[in-house]
# Entry
Amino acid sequence: MAGVFNPNMAATDAPPVMEARRWIADKSFPADRPLINVSQAAPVAPPPAGLRQALAETILTNDAAHLYGPVLGLPDLRAQVATQWRAAYGGQISPAQVAITGGCNMAFAAAMATLTAQGDEVLLPTPWYFNHKMWADMNGVSAVALPCGDDMLPDLDAARARITARTRAIVLVTPNNPTGAEYPAGLIAAFYDLARTNGIALVLDETYRDFHSASGAPHGLFTRPDWDDTLIQLYSFSKAYRLTGHRVGALVAARARLAQVEKYLDTVAICAGQSGQHAALWGMRNLGPWLAGERDEILSRRAAIAQGMARLKPLGWDLLGAGAYFAYVRHPFAIDAADLAPALVDMAGVLLLPGTMFRPKGDPAGRQELRIAFANIDQAGITTLIERLENLPGQLAPRAGHR
# Structure
């Protein structure tokens, strides 16, 4: 029995971040040249002191936090999400249209479990978020690659041409992981209309919405009176309040869909962790000004990355996209990114991910691309990162057309 596996699961790629961690597992780095780890998009600091104190008090004094809670989440947290979403987006959103999940990846899995069966198709813009592709593979769902242009925005006409009788959803991530691209409101609306016309879902992952460079609502979909016929929105508290270890996400959709989501969540996790939900609720109620400061800091790091990449451009580097936690770049070397990324650990003391992890196998574009999770390092760290890339060893041959 030890060798019997679900063939879909066996054919699914291993988790890329875990693979990257193995590149540094047996290595040490000198104190004067420490590793710069820009491989994973996760806050590296704990939550602010006030939230940690509230979390401690919850654990010490709230007996219910140690028990199973409602499958779809704490009523107060669902209500808080609905209230803040109405203020942020406009339109009508009720607590009954909000579910709380064990992180945003679980929100995605739950949504897709209600939409798709084996043999169905979903459209994923490429470069794609690898966990979305992994979920499709392990469930026998075809991930149909939807190309993006040079601006890293998905092509609407290409999406229209790829919709078939088996298509169940279009998945968009904005601000995007891995490219950082922020999708314009008009483009999001056009994809909503395309999905609605074809009777499929638009799954909109807004994990990084708190770090969008534009003020105001990033789209107007919730103002449509029947938005929940088409739209499924995903969100994560992890990035906003540094709660990655507590696994709290949200799914906003029609009540009828959440009735199906409840079946999935009850089977997989029963409920999201109670203490994490209380922490997210406290954060939403108390950390608005603090979160605004976090956004300002991320935007300053984005500016620093853009300035640094401008320094690298004469060397053949190109900045393809930047926003929220990510910069997506094209390197100037003949070496495949899948080989360059692990080599950079020794060459430069830098851990990042190759574009091959975000594209279909054989897609030549991925061989020249790298993802940098720049939100993990401060502006001084970004300066050091750029210097290390600027001074890579001379044995790296340039790709054709570069010197």
In short: The chain has a mean pLDDT of 94.
